[in-house]
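Consider the subject:
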Amino acid sequence: MKLSKEEAMLLESDPQAFLIKAYISAFPKASIRHISEALSIPKTKVHRCLSGTPFGTANGTAKPLQPKGKIAERGTPFGTANGTVPTAQEQEKKEARPTTKMRETFNEFYMQVTGESFYWSAKEMQALKDIYAKIEFSLKSKHRGYGTEDILAAFPGLLQCISDPWILQHLSPAIISSKYNEIISSYRTRRIAPRTATEAKQENLSQLAQMRKAIEDGIK
């Protein structure tokens, strides 16, 4: 028996499909179960062939290969979503973020205390956000204004409240955030305790000496 071109291609590409087609031609009323048992071919394969999709797809063609791995983003040399440089408006919005202002304030304070520039990491930036939330909570609990401007205005005061030599020696947003309650408690204790002018002066001199020693120890 001479095979047609289509049958020859089917025999080469899918021998089981060819056998099923040939069996159906000889026994058109045979059931899927009968064909499966007679040819030792799975029922699912027989069913696909009878439904006209021998390769398991809607149109009988092979399934397209899916690309492996993550498709690389193109056209984003500057790391933005659309590959463009941030606009002036976007830059202004970024600079107006509360954490940006707090970062500038902390940089100035750190420079005053240590005489050095502070290196910012993702951990420290997150700590700055945590401090923002804690100041907001403190202002709310005192029934005071707790808007962005109020929080930014309170942040320098928080830094000035720090008197613990250890905190000053290990000064960072992460340390301030972890010691936030202690800093506030210490400040309230000092403010409530009655002091004479001489005692206040001596305390200020003592704090200055402790701060200087902490800085010197940190440099060593």
In short: The radius of gyration is 38 Å.
